[in-house]
User: Fold these one by one.
Assistant:
Number 1:
Amino acid sequence: QHSCKILIIGGGTGGCTMAAKFTKQYKEPKQVIVVEPSDIHYYQPLFTLIGGGIKLFKSSNRPMAQVLPRNAKWIKDSVITFQPESNNIITSNGDTIQYEIMIVAMGLQLYWDKIPGLIEGLKNPDSQICSIYGPEMVTEVFNKIKKVSNGTAVFTFPNTPVKCPGAPQKIAYIAEDYWQQYALLHVTPPMGPPSILKNHTNLTNAAGFLRVDPKTLQHEQYTNIFGIGDCTNTPNSKTMAAISSQSKVVYRNVMDYLAGKEIRSVYEGYASCPLVTGYGKCILAEFDYKLQPLETFPFDQGKEYYMMYWLKKTFFPFLYWNLMLKGNWDGPEVFRKYFNVFKRKSTESVN
Ligand code: FAD
Ligand code: UQ1
């Protein structure tokens, strides 16, 4: 039996960032509890570069004990039951944890098993099937890319549910036939909310994502529950960059909620994707809920730049480990505002 002020489910990007923010406010031990089963914390954006032979695997992960804030209590276990009516959860070891506020940051689950034969194919060292999505298989990707000398490489992109469920099956069969000849298959597995979350329909939307207000990130039914990151139903692109902007909103709204004030902080859907287009080249795409560009820098980001590649390869990992996970990075909004003032001033002087 445990009880705490702030309970955080998941110690990944969103969970660890929120734990860092709240332990600055609530310093006494056990006020902030993090439930997280994994010993290892991954910086997943580097998986793409590891697959391209640009970075080493060891740069993408650190021990969980090292990244979670020291004055948070880490319960190394998985949640199996949410009981929002009585403000508690139950873990797989049978522990019950009572909370005042709960922040759900469970990420996405990779459903490899939804594609028959995929797990066997990935495990087979002689197959040319690979994926950057799994930490246990990302190191194989570059070896397999190097082996290709001719043939066709296929990179999959999963479908959302569609009308006529037969059609995707048919095309899968045709494609499978085609792949028999194929030189390389890179798989993006089907993904979705963690199955545990999906089982709690009072907390989720029809697809199983945590049902929060897209602006305030507060749960739509249980007001002392907030969500951050990949497991919520907010229609932003599911990225770490989005989480950096969400973390400030969740923190402020929780603090206002606890103080009995009105919740006012708003997330506009900022997300970003550094599109590495080749060795030394990258387009930094940044946008909001409406997919309108929300660029940080005062120049047209629609082109490839070496600088953006450097940000992705060197600067963002530094920013992540040293600022974001310590609760000190609220996204690039502050720079965007600063550069906008600068942009306006230079336009005024030209006029
Ligand atoms: P995660 O960081 O995945 O953490 C979820 C945590 O919840 C995990 O530690 C898990 O163990 C835990 N958990 C799950 N179930 C339970 C349970 N039942 N009980 C307790 N804990 C549980 N983003 C960018 O901004 N830029 C990029 O360039 C970029 N590139 C990417 C490339 C790849 C290949 C991948 C895979 C991701 C990339 N991302 C990128 C996305 C980014 O990594 C994610 O959006 C982000 O890490 C999600 O954070 P999260 O906290 O929601 O989930
Ligand atoms: C960002 O903040 C972030 O999280 C640390 C990323 O994840 C790797 C990103 O990819 C991006 C683009 C940002 C946004 C930061 C700037 C300076 C544009």
Note: Residues 271-350 form one domain.
Number 2:
Amino acid sequence: MKCVRCKKKGVIYLKRHNAAFCQECFLYYYKNQVKKNIKRHRMFDKKDKVLVVISGGKDSMALWHILASEGYNVTGMYINLGIGQYSDKSQQVVESFAQKNGLELIVKDIKKEYGLDIYRLSKLLKRSTCSVCGSIKRYLFNKVAYDCWFSVVATGHNLDDEAATLLGNVLSWEEGYLARQSPVLDSTHPKLVKKVKPLYTLTERENLYYVLINKIEFLHDECPHAVGARSILYKEVLNKLEEESPGTKQRFITSFLEKGRRHFQDVYANVDLRECKLCGQVTTTEVCSFCRFISISNSQSKS
Ligand code: FES
């Protein structure tokens, strides 16, 4: 198949667009998608200070790379969550990329800095490791963004992630989550920093091509706790649908954003936000979950 743009030999075929690209034109397509998403949803502009959430995987590395190459004012932020070798390897990848490319990077280590152990916490709280991990990440990314005057936090969520999350939320009609599912979450409290997902129309595979073509080092391993996660099952189901009917994932997301999401807006607007009485960060309870984690860890280590 010929490249749809320059008519040279196409090497990357995107079934949902029924289009092939040569490497150069694929990069043009990819960059255009990101630029369009940023502009269409007024995510940020060149004056904004953007904190990019980095895990070391292909999606976040692709996001960091493209935003930096397009001249945005970006700083990466990585959290070492104490997940054995997975955390050690990913931290190495992220630090070496920042160093090689002269990029700003903030690193937080939850064990060293806060004495937190997600395994111990998940046992004590009878919550899954992923849920404890998610609460810590959400808290720290927002706190660092707020404390260091970032105007926006950008994550590498891709089309596959978004479609799988939407499917999960629809299956159990999680109204609160459906209200918040969007490529842009504007701040609803002075201490909550805006969140954006510039890659939400690009698939995992497209992000993979982007990092491979640009020779960007990334961590190939998934987090060991992702094994057996519901989101993986949803991704497999959606992949089957996509195979039969290319474009399903994109239609699912875009039609939800255009027609579905507005029906849940009241749920979002009615959430009662307050400031944690210990740290002052935004929460829905008197003490936020991060401060609860800290006090549980402290009391356990004393006993
Ligand atoms: Fe949080 Fe896997 S990255 S549990």
Note: The longest strand covers residues 73-80.
